[in-house]
Design brief:
Elements (H helix, E strand, L loop, with lengths): L2 E6 L5 H13 L2 E3 L14 E7 L7 H9 L7 E8 L4 H4 L1 H9 L3 E9 L20 H22 L5
Helix pairs in contact: 1-5
């Protein structure tokens, strides 16, 4: 497989746990957006982008990297996130649109709850404490397996 996962995990390591679970299955390289040049991403057949959710959108560093990418026409990608309030349709909307504008083909999306103590939530101990948990990590692995099998089914071989 030729996969890479670009992620940002800041507060509690929630997103990093999910990224690592997916990377194990996909045999993917893990990088932060500031650790890679945009043109390096073009060497991969599958690119994952994920972070915690900050005020209904992914981390700004992901958008900065995507903005610097050339149009990629059909390059396969997936989106993932962790959030105190897990509403992927809303939380993924801005990243989904940014990737589509660059020509990416989004082959899957994953989200789960993550312990959130951002802003005022710190005063109450946060929300979704204990997440991602073992069940969330297993769901992330199953998601990654589906991505891998989707590629095999489409091409008759494992071509990531």
């Amino acid at each position: 497989m030729n996969a890479i996962i670009v992620y940002v995990s800041i507060h509690h390591g929630n997103t990093e746990k999910i990224a690592r679970a997916m990377a194990e299955v996909l045999n993917a390289k893990l990088v932060k957006p500031w650790e890679i040049m945009p043109e390096e991403l073009l060497n991969y057949d599958l690119i994952g982008f994920g972070s915690g959710i900050y005020y209904w959108k992914h981390h700004k560093a992901l958008f900065g990297l995507i903005e610097k990418l050339p149009t990629v026409k059909g390059k396969k990608t997936f989106i993932f996130s962790t959030a105190g309030i897990n509403i992927p349709f809303i939380n993924h909307r801005k990243l989904r649109n940014a990737l589509k504008r660059k020509g990416f083909e989004i082959v899957g999306e994953f989200s789960c709850r993550g312990w959130d103590t951002n802003g005022w939530l710190a005063k109450i101990g946060g929300i979704s404490k204990g997440h991602p948990d073992d069940r969330d990590l297993e769901r992330a692995r199953r998601f990654a397996k589906r991505l891998a099998s989707l590629q095999r089914d489409q091409n008759g071989a494992d071509n990531y």
